[in-house]
Write a structure and sequence with these properties.
With 432 residues, this protein is an alpha/beta fold. Helices cover 47% and strands 19% of the residues. It has a domain of 221 residues. The chain is globular. Belongs to the saccharopine dehydrogenase family.
């Protein structure tokens, strides 16, 4: 980062701080980093931001929070957005649907030389971001990171951790990595639902078909040759290497694309981190048996029908949370999530490496807001450590793993998340 950027008034700006997730990001900052990080709240409505700031100051019992600067701009006013982003090293964007409200923020982040991170799961929009900004951001050393919340940090950093362990400790790559979603307690927000509905209702049919059939949808933009990896589909199945039945996970279509994009990016750095020969990734929901896995599949079909058919979307909007609404504080603070991680090595006699990641808080909002924040703080505060790791990408439209790697893993662990490798077993039962 240039001396000019480093001397900007703020290290972090929370864009959309009056929204549901943005408010949580601001709360994490106010509670844990006030006085340690130069930060500001930004958005369209100054009065709403002032109210949030006042509530946060009382909530964390710190009068200094009441003096946190407020910056205002409408997301549709590109020059105004640029004036805000020119004042910070990193912007954390929480305003979705990103395909509707995010273009000017990314455009201006690249134009102003400001690192960027968001919580989108809108992969077609991410694809357009790569096509539009990757080369320019790469040339300027700007890091634009999408999908830095529950979508897709557990999948992306969890897989990176398993690959790193196999490469550094076992001296081999991985042929197949698994992320098995375990028990959890989570809430739903209107913003997430609106983003999903927006993808289905606005993207061209051909684009949706490519998204749902091509596991290299993003990775091929970075030059990764297509291998044999394919989307997991909706049918229940038994996974021998993971020793469990499993059903489909609705966010696999997002997370798998990010994992393969990380592989593509990391194999092209100064010190390449090759995930493995014909590396494949599977993400499903672990089930107790074939009946439970079949029920997960049936539920996924119903959800697909609700999101995919306009009349059912209209009915769903009447009963589901509206944008700006989300889970209760009880669900946020007492929720939890777990993923079991499995890696099958690409040795002549494969071994199985097991690990896990998780958190004792709601994944979609409390955990997501903290994951986004720690990603942004890695960009703002850990520049020297990132620069010292030659395996990492230096600029462009990137993934969290490709941009921040082990540095972010350590930040997440310090923030209370579990990311750990449990052990190595003998010959794999198979990688089906």
């Amino acid at each position: 980062m240039s001396a000019t950027v480093a001397s900007r008034p703020y290290q972090v700006v929370v864009w959309g701080a009056s929204g549901f997730t943005g408010r949580l990001v601001a709360e994490h900052l106010a509670r844990d980093y006030q006085g340690k990080v130069r930060w500001a709240m930004a958005g369209r409505d100054a009065k709403k931001l002032e109210q949030v700031r006042s509530e946060l100051a009382a909530r964390v019992n710190n009068p200094e929070v009441a003096a946190v600067p407020i910056l205002t701009a409408d997301a549709n006013d590109a020059p105004a957005v640029g004036r805000v982003l020119a004042q910070t090293q990193v912007v954390l964007s929480t305003v979705g649907p990103f395909a509707r409200y995010g273009d000017n923020v990314v455009d201006q982040a690249v134009a102003q030389g400001t690192h960027y991170a968001d919580i989108t799961g809108e992969i077609p929009w991410v694809k357009r971001s790569v096509q539009k900004h990757h080369e320019a951001a790469k040339q300027k050393g700007v890091k634009v990171l999408h999908c830095c919340g529950y979508d897709s940090i557990p999948s992306d950093l969890g897989t990176f951790m398993m690959i790193e362990h196999c490469r550094d400790k076992l001296g081999c790559g991985v042929s197949h990595a698994y992320s098995l979603v375990g028990p959890g307690r989570a809430g739903v927000s209107g913003g997430t639902l609106e983003s999903g509905m927006n993808i289905i209702s606005t993207e061209a049919s051909a684009e949706l078909m490519a998204l749902n059939t091509n596991q290299y949808y993003l990775a091929e933009l970075y030059g990764l040759p297509k291998g044999t990896d394919k989307p997991d589909g909706i049918m229940p199945r038994y996974l021998p290497a993971a020793r469990t039945w499993a059903g489909p996970f609705v966010m696999e279509s997002c997370n798998a694309k990010i994992v393969q994009a990380s592989h593509a990016l990391l194999r092209g750095t100064a010190t390449p981190l090759e995930y493995g020969t014909d590396f494949k990734f599977t993400e499903m929901i672990a089930a107790s048996g074939p009946v439970a896995a079949s029920l997960i599949s049936a539920g996924t079909v119903v959800l697909g029908a609700v999101l995919g058919l306009a009349p059912l979307r209209a009915v769903a909007r009447r009963f589901l949370p509206a944008p700006g609404q989300g889970p209760s504080e009880d669900v946020q603070r007492n929720g939890f999530w777990t993923h079991d991680l499995v890696a099958v090595t690409d040795e002549p006699t494969p071994r199985v490496v097991r690990g896990k990641c998780g958190d004792r808080r709601d994944p979609g909002y409390w955990s997501t807001s903290r994951m986004l924040l720690e990603t942004g703080l890695a960009l703002a505060l850990d520049e020297a450590a990132l620069a010292a790791d030659a395996r990492l990408a230096r600029g462009g439209v990137l993934t969290a793993a490709a941009a921040c790697g082990h540095v972010l893993l350590e930040r997440l662990r310090a923030a209370g998340f579990t990311f750990e490798v449990a052990g190595v077993e003998g010959q794999a039962a198979g990688a089906k």
